Structure formats: structure tokens, C-alpha cells
Automatic annotation (TrEMBL):
Signal sequence bounds: none
Superkingdom in the source lineage: Bacteria
Main location: cytoplasm
Subunit-level organization: Homodimer.
Protein name: Glutamate-1-semialdehyde 2,1-aminomutase
Cofactors required: pyridoxal 5'-phosphate
An annotated GO BP: protoporphyrinogen IX biosynthetic process
Lineage: Bacteria, Bacillati, Bacillota, Bacilli, Bacillales
Keyword Cytoplasm appears in the UniProt entry: yes
Keyword Cell membrane: no
Reactions catalysed: (S)-4-amino-5-oxopentanoate = 5-aminolevulinate
Length: 428
């Protein structure tokens, strides 16, 4: 494969855009360097770079593109928005329709508010938890990423971990000391933290199923403990469902897990590919937000008609029967194929998969926390990534990210992918 145009574009991008990328996770720094491939267009499960190479896309834009690229139903909704006005700065019917759809799918949401990104959504839930409880400290879990605002850039997985900077420069010590980080899936450590700081904790922020040091499910009883102790100490539970909502079923992960968080942050999938964030939760807690209450949150683009209509259309697609079952079926075939190829070529891996999302760790240990995910061999992953890319399979350029299936992947795509994995493993 030739990447001539991508390489030239990256050289140019470096002159104008910091690091040549608009989000650090897009850089190939963690996979041995090189010019990131620039995409020209996408259709269904494929996208095509500016050198005209075709890729099967497992990046799915880090999660949102669950219905593939250019889905006709979503495209129609976006075209309608483009023709009839993308931004009014007023109330619209779309935002009410979409809020009702989200509430129906996620019964925990008494009230919602839309904004423009996952970062904003989580940031606001943290503010609300503080406003509601009158406390300042937060608990988060090591390796979980919740966006790029100060309070959560502490042991933050995914992008920051990949680039080897778990704490960002510019985050004041005074902010970092308000955040207590606990290993995921470690009940003893969590109990200990609550016994020590429980009375000062405003909120406990958690990805109910982790997506940011690969796909990691909670051990039985772990989230239940988090919820019980939060209640005992008067702290709020905040589920960051920016990756998980509508990824595994039509609704939120916490519903699947039988949990009722106080606040929920949403993003990615719910925008059908357009910028979005949303948060919601129990009525009395949500009424802390302006104009009803003293916690402030606002946004010029919040609830814009384009994102609302794309989101509505996306959920309409996802509501069709059999969608998630098919992603699970294909995910299982892919996982099996990967494991068999690893066995054949004597490559040590661990695969974590939940339905249409999976992660390959180049380690022999079962991965249930960030410390174990870190042990996945980044150098091998980097070579694997490039070998897959050269065969037209696009993965996230980080050992910590998940592969995401979409509604558009077919069994043929999976077969092609397994053959590519087999070859890549033979070359490692
Ligand atoms: N929370 C989680 C769990 C995420 O995975 C992300 C993004 N990867 C965010 C929050 C931040 O979302 P955004 O990039 O839209 O600001």
C-alpha cells in the first residue's frame, strides 16, 4: 500500500496544526511513529484514504460510528438539518423528541440536558455532584478516561496513557488533590478509600464497563459495592456511559447491569456521528442546574438541530430488531478467529470482548484492571497495528483502545479481518 498523499498531507499539517492532529490519540506516536493515514470518505464499514486505499474500519471514530459511515437514514436527517437550519439558539421540537427517546431507552433519566461533547457532559455531572452535595472530592478509577477537563486528567487511561502522560501539565496540584484514584475492580481499595474520605466525596465517577484501557467488565459485585457505599456516605454515583450507551444494547450499560446511578453522562453514539454530549439523572439532582438551580451549564451549540436530528435518526436505526445480536454474533466469530490465529503462530494474547467491542492485549494475564492492561506489549502492538493497516484493516493506534463493530460489518469483512490477523501474527 502507498501512503504518499497521507505522508505529504501530514508534513503540511505539521506546519499548521499542533502535532498535525486535532486529537492526540490520532497520532501514530504510540505505534512507532509515521504519518497518520488521512481518510477521504467512508461508506458503511469501510473508509478510503486520500491515496485511495480501502480499509475495514474498526475504529468507528473511537465509538460513535455504530451504524457505519454515511448511513442513508442518518444522512437524510443531516441533509434535512442542513437545508432547514443547523442552529437557531432557540427551543426546538427536535430536542424534546430526542430527550423523550433517550428517557424511554434509559429509564434512569428523569431529566436530561444536551451539550456538545463527552468532556462537557462529564464535567457538568461533576459540577452538579459538588453543587448537590456541597462537597468537593471525587473518586475515579485508574485508567478510566472521562474527557480532558482538569479534574479527570488524573490516571486517565486511553489517550493520556498511550502518550505516557497520565497527568497533564497545567492541571493544578490543588485540583488533582481533590481526586482520589482507585484501581478498577478492586473492592478492598475502594472500601479503603471510602472509609478514609467517604464523608468528603461528592461523586464517584465510573465507566460501568470500561472502554478506555480496552474493554473491561466489572467483576460481579464490584459496582454494587460502589453503589452501596456511595449511598452509605451520601456521595453520588456518576456513570460515564459515553462509550457504553447504545453500544451493547438499545440503552445504557447500567440498565444491563441492573444499576441506577444518580447521574449519567452520554455522548458518542447518541449523536449519530455529529458532535454531542448529554447528561441526565434523577429529577431533584438535575434541578440543581440553571435556570432551576445554582449549578451553571450552558452552550451556544447545545441541542443544535443538526446533532438532534442525527441522534434521533441513529437511535431509530439502532432500535431495529436484531441489530445488537448480529454485532455480538460477528464479534464472537472475530474473537474466535483471533484466538485461533494466536494459537497457530504462538503469539501470547488475551482478548476481552463484550458483544461488538473487543480488545487484544499482548499479555498472558487476564485483564481486569489498568495495571494489567499496561502490561500489554506496546511495541508488539505497534507492529501489529502497522501490519493490519497495510492489509486494509484500520484499528485505533493505541494498545488501550477497543475494536468496534458496526451494524454494517458483514461476515465477509470478519473473514477478511481474521485472515489479516493470521498474516500479521505470522510476521510478528
Ligand atoms: N468519557 C469517556 C468514557 C470517553 O471514552 C470519552 C472519549 N473517548 C470521553 C468521556 C470524552 O468525550 P469527548 O471526546 O466527546 O469529549
Amino acid at each position: 500500500m502507498k501512503y504518499t498523499k497521507s505522508e505529504a498531507l501530514h508534513e503540511e499539517a505539521l506546519q499548521h496544526i499542533v502535532g498535525g492532529v486535532n486529537s492526540p490519540s490520532r497520532s501514530y506516536k504510540a505505534v512507532g511513529g509515521g504519518a497518520p493515514v488521512a481518510m477521504a470518505y467512508g461508506k458503511g464499514a469501510y473508509f478510503y484514504d486520500i491515496d485511495d486505499n480501502r480499509y475495514i474500519d474498526y475504529l468507528a471514530a473511537y465509538g460513535p460510528i455504530v451504524t457505519g459511515h454515511g448511513h442513508p437514514h442518518i444522512a437524510k436527517a443531516i441533509a434535512h438539518a442542513a437545508e432547514t437550519g443547523v442552529l437557531f439558539g432557540t427551543a426546538t421540537e427536535h430536542e424534546v423528541t430526542f430527550a423523550k427517546m433517550l428517557k424511554e431507552a434509559i429509564p434512569t433519566l428523569d431529566k436530561v440536558r444536551f451539550n456538545n461533547s463527552g468532556t462537557e457532559a462529564v464535567m457538568t455531572t461533576v459540577r452538579i455532584a459538588r453543587a448537590y452535595t456541597g462537597r468537593t472530592k471525587m473518586i475515579k478509577f485508574a485508567g478510566c478516561y472521562h474527557g480532558h477537563f482538569d479534574q479527570v486528567l488524573v490516571a486517565a487511561g486511553s489517550g493520556p496513557a498511550t502518550l505516557g502522560s497520565p497527568d497533564s501539565a497545567g492541571v493544578p496540584e490543588s485540583v488533582a488533590t481533590e481526586v482520589i484514584t482507585v484501581p478498577f475492580n478492586d473492592p478492598e481499595a475502594f472500601k479503603h478509600a471510602m472509609e478514609r474520605w467517604g464523608e468528603q466525596i461528592a461523586g464517584i465517577l465510573i465507566e460501568p464497563i470500561v472502554g478506555n484501557f480496552g474493554i473491561v467488565e466489572p467483576k460481579p459485585g464490584f459496582l454494587e459495592l460502589v453503589h452501596e457505599m456511595a449511598k452509605q456516605y451520601g456521595a453520588l454515583t456518576i456513570h460515564d456511559e459515553i462509550i457504553t450507551a447504545f453500544r451493547f444494547h438499545y440503552g445504557a450499560a447500567h440498565t444491563m447491569l441492573g444499576l441506577t446511578p444518580d447521574l449519567v453522562a452520554l455522548g458518542k453514539v447518541i449523536g449519530g456521528g455529529l458532535p454531542i454530549g448529554a447528561y441526565g439523572g434523577k429529577k431533584d439532582i438535575m434541578e440543581t442546574v440553571a435556570p432551576l438551580g445554582p449549578a451553571y451549564q450552558a452552550g451556544t451549540m447545545a441541542g443544535n438541530p443538526a446533532s438532534m436530528q442525527a441522534g434521533i435518526a441513529c437511535l431509530e436505526v439502532l432500535k431495529q430488531p436484531g441489530i445488537y445480536e448480529e454485532m455480538d454474533r460477528l464479534g464472537a466469530i472475530l474473537e474466535q478467529g483471533i484466538l485461533e490465529a494466536a494459537k497457530k503462530h504462538n503469539i501470547t494474547i488475551t482478548v476481552n470482548r463484550l458483544k461488538g467491542a473487543l480488545t487484544i492485549y499482548f499479555t498472558d494475564e487476564k485483564v481486569v484492571n489498568y495495571e494489567q492492561a499496561e502490561k500489554s506489549d506496546g511495541e508488539i502492538f505497534g507492529r501489529f497495528f502497522k501490519l493490519m493497516l497495510s492489509q486494509g484493516i484500520n484499528l485505533a493506534p493505541s494498545k488501550y483502545e477497543a475494536w468496534f463493530l458496526t451494524t454494517e460489518h458483514t461476515e465477509e469483512d470478519i473473514t477478511e479481518t481474521i485472515a489479516a490477523v493470521d498474516y500479521a501474527f505470522s510476521q510478528l
